[in-house]
Amino acid sequence: MSTAVRPQLAACPGCVAAPNGTIEQAPTEARLALSLPSIHCQACISTVERGLNAVPGVRSARVNLTLKRALIEADPEVRALDLVPVLERLGFEAHELNLAALNATQTDQAGRELLMRLAVAFFASMNVMLLSISVWSGASDATRDMFHWISAAITFPAILFAGQPFFRNAWQALRVGRLNMDVPIVLAIVLALLTSLWETSLSGEHAYFDAALTLTFFLLAGRYLDHRTRAVARSAAEELAALEVPRALRLDSAGQPVEVAVADLVIDDHILVRPGGRMPVDGVVLEGQSELDRSLLTGETLPVFAEAGSLISAGEVNLTGPLVVGATAVGTQSSLHQLADLVAIAESGRSRYTSLADRAAKLYAPGVHILSALAFLGWYLFTFDLRVALNIAAAVLIITCPCALGLAVPAVTTAASGRLFKKGMLIKHSTALERLAEVDTVVFDKTGTLTNGTPQCDDFALLSPQDQQLAYALALGSDHPLSAAICRAAEQAGVRPAVVTGLQEVTGFGTEASYHDRQVRLGRAAWVGAEPGAKTAAYLDSGAGRAQALTFSDSLRPGAAEAVEALQKANKNVWLISGDTEGAVRDLAERLKIQHWIASALPQDKSDCVAELSEQGQRVLMVGDGLNDTAALAAAHVSISPASALDAARVASDIVLLGQDLAPIAEACVVAQKATYRIRENFRIATLYNVIAVPLAVAGLATPLVAALAMSTSSITVSLNALRLR
Amino acid sequence: MSVLSYLIPISLFLGGIGLVGFLYTVRSNQYDDPEGDARRILNDEWDDHPKP
């Protein structure tokens, strides 16, 4: 599959937001999965399902419109590759998905568990709240006691089930001697429950069962939002990975190609790589001549010649001729994988960034505990009544408990990620938004990032009409990217191909044919007898005198110019660092008005440059797609890669750009800044509310009614504030 | 007072039915394809004959 035709994912976050999995009636053990990026309505569902069910061997097919996917249960001999043309005839773009890579998203167990706990907490809190309202509105004596006992009977099992995520996290933190947000939460819940039970048994007036439950409910809601945001990003990222079905053609002992999974290849296997295919392994060319596209690995736009004896590495694309490759390193040993592993190590350095929420929690947790301990001590020394002192300490813990804090960050990041997802950006890392907001320098890679990596023929129009026809005819004989560019230019100009005979491709050199008894050629400078120029060019020898050069330049990605301009307007330094030759890079920098540029950069140079900028105190955003960018992507403060990037680059980056358009990058910076501003604003709201409520609680004036009102008000305020971001 | 002795259990029971219903829908994957399910009701394939 070519990397260019990647489906645009659903435009709205709702389309992929739901927990994933198979429907009850759907094939229980789907054997095949197809991605259907273009389906959107009921008619599409019916057509696809009917079409697939009509294929012999298909037992059942079910479309999931939310995920834009079809799950098919079929006999073992049915292959996804046979079903794709069926759907294409029906007018639907279809891509095979690698089910093994998708398995993690098939059932979202964690999300489902959170949802159930959320439901239980909601049910219990609503019932207990009804009983509490009766108490607050005047139930007294035996009735109040009975209501309290019923509340206790509902609350204990409900909290035991619903609060488990907090208990577990708090226990894990305490075991290694740390404090996290969950420790004060658990302490508040447990203390509230125990004092309430004690009060109830002494037929006291105040019980905080409802507060303990609503606290759990609000915090679970925050947890669930947080989980869902990340699940959306994860499932979309996994779908991107699953689109690359790794297959290779292995030559068996008789020299016949057999299709096998890349995972089954071993060293010394002979592998046939057809033109257009990607190298599955590191190896050495045994037979054949061809040209290789190394742009994803090195950033070079020009194809590299390869013949028997040349070394190749995994990820390079074979362009013109079939090659037989002897594998020297496979799977995790291949250079591609080793780089990805290096990146994974570099990435762990990223986790050193503490999010705003964690920083707030670090200040918050000890503060709250000290405050409540002081309240306890003060009241005990004042009244010598253990019951009163404990009640007040519990009230302080409940009132200060971070419902607002627990909701503030997830609500804002969910709203912001949803907004960016609509624009075609996928936030992978939980602190990516906060880091993106601090960016003041943007480093772009050239090939595949600012440009499409597909050449565009610049001076086709300068040829005489006859030569244009001839060039078109010769270009049709090859799949080489330069030939494809000539074909595109010819089609745009409305040129018809000349009638030539004996058209044939000379692998690695070009195409030749005879035209009116003349030998005509299109290809390399040396081959047609011309002087090679500085720019990327193909040479047309029309058999009449000297050859003519056709020069090429890389076409700009849509939105690239807008993105660079908007970033510069926002006072960010824009850099262009590329592994390509100086001429091509200078050309592009001038076109986009980028002042700082570096050409012929090796992967090490790129990451060094990013590190140097960081040392100067700049926060660097790296945008890149190739293997040569991965080190720089991991070294940067925050990184973005397009969906067409290699897997390793996508893994290394915090944000994936799903569409072709680059323009959302500038907007993402603005949204991220707004989001962090909202998070801080929410913290301020929460602090303000604590400043008002805590003295009340310490003074012993916080009744359960006041606690419930204050808690709900602050939670709802921060949620509404987060929604303003949408 | 006596009215409470049956109203509270009834309200808990009804709420419990709702909760169990919700848990059932979560467990049987009914939230997997909300978009598709919303569109499937427009399918007229089974209008005249119920689904076999």
Automatic annotation (TrEMBL), chain A:
Main location: membrane
Keyword tRNA processing: no
Keywords: ATP-binding, Cell membrane, Ion transport, Magnesium, Membrane, Metal-binding, Nucleotide-binding, Phosphoprotein, Translocase, Transmembrane, Transmembrane helix, Transport
Ranges for domain HMA: 30-95
Transit peptide in keyword set: no
Family matches, as InterPro entries: ATPase_P-typ_cyto_dom_N (IPR023299), ATPase_P-typ_P_site (IPR018303), ATPase_P-typ_TM_dom_sf (IPR023298), ATPase_P-typ_transduc_dom_A_sf (IPR008250), ATPase_P-type_domA (IPR059000), HAD-like_sf (IPR036412), HAD_sf (IPR023214), Heavy-metal-associated_CS (IPR017969)
Similarity comment: Belongs to the cation transport ATPase (P-type) (TC 3.A.3) family. Type IB subfamily.
Protein name listed in UniProt: Heavy metal translocating ATPase CcoI
Organism name: Phaeobacter porticola
